[in-house]
């Protein structure tokens, strides 16, 4: 039999051995956990990158929505104000005494047209009693934002030849928003300083679509390309699609009546 002291020493040694083994195993497990678990710095870095990317995407989305809202609502508000201003200014000009062309046998007013100036007023009864927009000289985008544009290479209102105009169907006041609703026989009224011209639609613009490169619709005699014009006609053009495209809807009308003011 071993002395009690020996038993006590062996027990203490056993306890120490077990304690040292537990500590070693614990350290080993901690190292394994450390290797498996990502560092706090790495987690923060990934969260930070995701936050930045998410914020940028959110800002881009809000910006796109804002741009669309401006195009489809904001530009209409500003252009409608411009329509009213151009109409008011044109009527004020008409009220002033006009200079006569000394070389004209019938005393016609000699037109002095500056690009961007309003030259006439357009009314289409089918669009309502309140529909009235200015017709401006030129078809640049900056001009079309203020009214309907006149192709300056074509005839003036009432003249023999082709009086051709263009207007937005969507955005920027949408003066030709309902152009495709016109039918054969609908009236298009053009008012100048001295006269009121009434054109009558020959057909609906929804029935004729051309590419923006097909300029024959602007010819003096669009129904007879190359022929010398013998009557006064009018051509109305607009985008065929609601979004930007090369397609153009075209409607033709003929002069049916001229009245002095």
UniProtKB/TrEMBL annotation:
Signal peptide range: none
InterPro entries xref list: Sortase, Sortase_Class_E, Sortase_dom-sf, Sortase_E
SUPFAM superfamilies named among the record's database cross-references: Sortase
Keyword NAD: no
NCBIfam families named in the record: class_E_sortase (NF033747), sortase_fam (TIGR01076)
Regions that span the bilayer: 47-70
Active site, UniProt feature: 168 (proton donor/acceptor), 239 (acyl-thioester intermediate)
Superkingdom, taxonomy of origin: Bacteria
Organism (species): Microlunatus phosphovorus (strain ATCC 700054 / DSM 10555 / JCM 9379 / NBRC 101784 / NCIMB 13414 / VKM Ac-1990 / NM-1)
GO molecular function, one term: hydrolase activity
Pfam families referenced in this protein's UniProt entry, alphabetically: Sortase
Name listed for the protein in its UniProt record: Peptidase C60 family protein
Keywords assigned: Hydrolase, Membrane, Transmembrane, Transmembrane helix
